[in-house]
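ligand=FE2/S2 (inorganic) cluster
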Amino acid sequence: MVCQHLGCAVEFSKEKNIYECPCHGSKYYRNGVNFAGPAPRPLNHFEIVLDDSGKLIVDTSKIVPLETELVV
Ligand code: FES
């Protein structure tokens, strides 16, 4: 959820179905790929696991390459 330009928090627009950065206008598709503005690369993707109690755990210390996520 952190813009890859200078680190502002991106917001999801339900109306546009994209992520937008309020700081300098970078835009990202739903899969995190940047397509407008100064962001030089896609949003980071993190490892997500389902624990034994049924909770989704997002591990922000483990960045998943975008190519791997698209294959799953
Ligand atoms: S920090 Fe997001 S566009 Fe600059």
